[in-house]
């Protein structure tokens, strides 16, 4: 079972980014993927998926 996660979207709605479980799920080897949610409302660039990856890498 895979989990699609949108940390930036979750951050703006209800969960502090640093408390988002994506990094720990990824390090545990769970099947997770980054996705976008409401890219025109939440993200700051024209490339919302690249933005999600950039934030996740930092």
From TrEMBL:
Name under which the protein is recorded: AMP deaminase
Keyword Hydrolase: yes
E.C. designation(s): 3.5.4.6
Gene3D superfamilies, alphabetized: Metal-dependent hydrolases (3.20.20.140)
Family: Belongs to the metallo-dependent hydrolases superfamily. Adenosine and AMP deaminases family.
InterPro entries: A/AMP_deam_AS, AMPD, Metal_Hydrolase
BP GO annotations: AMP metabolic process; IMP salvage
């Amino acid at each position: 079972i895979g989990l699609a996660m949108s940390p930036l979207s979750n951050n703006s709605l209800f969960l502090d980014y640093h408390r988002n479980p994506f990094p720990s799920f990824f390090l545990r080897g769970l099947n997770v993927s980054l996705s976008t949610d409401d890219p025109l409302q939440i993200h700051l660039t024209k490339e919302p998926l690249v933005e999600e990856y950039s934030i996740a890498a930092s």
